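QA checklist item 7 of 12: single-chain prediction sanity check.
[x] sequence parsed
[x] length recorded as 333
[x] structure emitted
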Amino acid sequence: MAQAAIKAAKLSAAAVFKLGAAGARVDDRVEAMSNSSSNPDAGERDRIGARQTSPPLEPGLYVVATPIGNLRDITLRALDVLGAAGRVYAEDTRVARKLLDAYGLKPRLGAYHDHSAERARAEIMAALAARESVALISDAGTPLVSDPGFKLVCAAIKGGHRVFPIPGPSAALAGLVASGLPSDRFLFAGFLPAKQGARRAALTELAQIDATLILFESGPRLVESLADMATLLGPRPAAVARELTKLFEETRRDGLDALAAHYAEAGAPRGEIVIVVGPPAEAEAPSEQVLDAFLTEALARCSVKEAAIAAARALGGSRKQAYARALMLKGKV
């Protein structure tokens, strides 16, 4: 099955590359691809299009997203970069080799992970100084997202080198779009601490954020994490997505307490896990009498603005409403 998928992916890529020789189509709109950083002239239009393979790489650091499970999720541009880069650095060279071998790519491969980062970073900076092109990949998904690479990107920028993002798969976004939870505002919080005390402290901070939360978790810690979430975040809707894009992909949606109970009974699941938690429910506005009583007491010791902020935090409701009410009461105090 894997070989068939790889063959199909190669055929698909070949078909797209061949479109470049067929001339422009009706949907080829230069305006759709134009922006302030690239403004290509008439002879350069395909540089940022999908009709031809990419041109030779410019010197710089290329941060390349790779599949999170299904090898066919690799982008054509990622294949171009990995095939043309002077060097490719991977979190685990064994994992990277499987991907590269699947597409017949044989770049100069090095390791960049927590234990080799300092030494490898010096090598990469020397290569960038020599005007080489260097690609960075992680085991799965987009580098720097709960993966090594942040210090390298900072060093490259500080050294005056270009950093090219090569976007693609992301487990966090895949979990979000499959969750059915609000996606207009979200926070990616990575992995929670392994120890319960630190984990609960982190969740207490996250509970104040008015946005959908996206977290990573391991199978063995899932039950404990969900139980703590149910306790500290309250009865929020949530989704547990695992093995995304793989054969046994599963997304289970329910309240946090129900999900915690399910996995406590079913046991730790296998695979990499994304937890998506809905935002907190809007607090009911306090009654006028309750708001007035709180503000009257607060105005005796602080400003109108401070009293309004304190009321909104303590009672819920709109800060704007609390401020307007405080202004009115101020004349009576």
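[x] summary fact logged: The chain has 13 helices and ten strands.
[ ] second reviewer sign-off
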